[in-house]
Design brief:
Bound molecules: beta-D-galactopyranuronic acid
Largest sheet: 10 strands, mixed
Order of helices and strands: EEHEHEEEEEHEHHEHEHHEHEEH
Helix content: 25-40%
Number of strands: 14
Distance between the termini: 46 Å
Radius of gyration: 21 Å
CATH topology: Rossmann fold
CATH architecture: 3-Layer(aba) Sandwich
CATH class: Alpha Beta
Shape: globular
Amino acid sequence: MAASGRSSILAPLDDGAEFELVLHTQEENVPAYTLPDPLALPSGQPVQDVETWRTVQRPRLLQLFAQEIYGATPALDLDISFEPLSYAEDALDGLAIRKEVRVWFRRAGYQCYMDILIYLPRQAKEEPAPLFVGLNFMGNHTIHADAGITLSTNWIPDRSPDPQNPDGRVVNNRATEKARGASASRWPVEMILRRGYGLATIYSGDLDPDFDDDFQNGVHPLGYKAGQTRPAAYEWGTVAAWAWGLQRAMDYFEQDTQIDAARVAVVGHSRLGKAALWAGAQDERFAAVISNDSGCMGAALTVRAFGETLAAINLNFPAWFCENCKRYIRQPEALPVDQHMLLALIAPRPIYVASAEQDKWADPRGEFLALKAAEPVYALFGKDGLGVDTMPGADQPVGSVMGYHMRTGGHDITAYDWAQYMDFCDSTVIG
Ligand code: GTR
């Protein structure tokens, strides 16, 4: 990026035209904007009561996010079954119950599955445990070195830091034993268990492998009608498929007597934070929603165009959002919604948004401002806002039902982030 903090490149669009993709990471380059009011009805009248929010405005906004950004999940006529894969009551040196459940999705002519890895504190045998659930990037076996975790056999991206010199964790897009625990710094499992929470995770690639294959693999074909070969322009992209998987995990939690399904917080980092937000917005069974560095089309305001923009994300990751979303590449200001409205859809449930100071690409200030702009909807429910008007400095968590912090450091999810999430859930989900 140039010293002015602004750069541009010419990017080719699907229709053959060239588009000037402008990127900036300086506050002075943020365009003037007015945010749409989450409480404004199409008539211009404000929503004044919870009933109107719940029955009119919330469904309307959900539909706009589905149709214009993430893509609507088609009506699915599936046979879904839960197959126990493993169970151990003495995992992690006796600290945890560990179980794995394979969730099968079947329809005539097509089937696929996702594996849920679950750790629960031992006392879950007597009393159902509250739980964090989140997707992972590289396979369940990467979250902990625990040899009892089934090694994924599905397609996995090779993210070796040096592609010329691969680290051997993924060979021919399949996991190897070397990959065990590779993402452990992001999943402080023992710390979570010692605080009385369980943890469930699913490899995002079980639901949809993270590459653009025109939606031939993963869960998308489950939704095809006769003759259909890819989702319609308003139907689900990859992020929505990931969110759908989180909801199916919730279906499982509801019938597991060791899990307190009324106290499940959905959490996600980065692209998987976008999925956590979309799952939490749609599905009120999630008792709390936590976004970690989710950025563009996650918790950050799109109109600020700071760091990653709507155009950049759709050009770099064409499968993540629905086809309709690409119509806004040239005119993001025409989007009828912005991301503060997505956060507002979670009201009145606890929501936590976290940024990282050096993670300019995800626009920390844009994430804070989006949460601020969701406050009026929480106020409609009589819930407190963030309790501050200006953005707090690094490592200064704020808020109660709505929580925010900006961690020192870069794009990541760390033990510090998890510690804040547990403090937050202690007083909201548990307390
Ligand atoms: C980046 C992408 C972000 C974020 C991130 C991640 O390349 O631009 O939107 O999702 O990947 O998931 O780590």
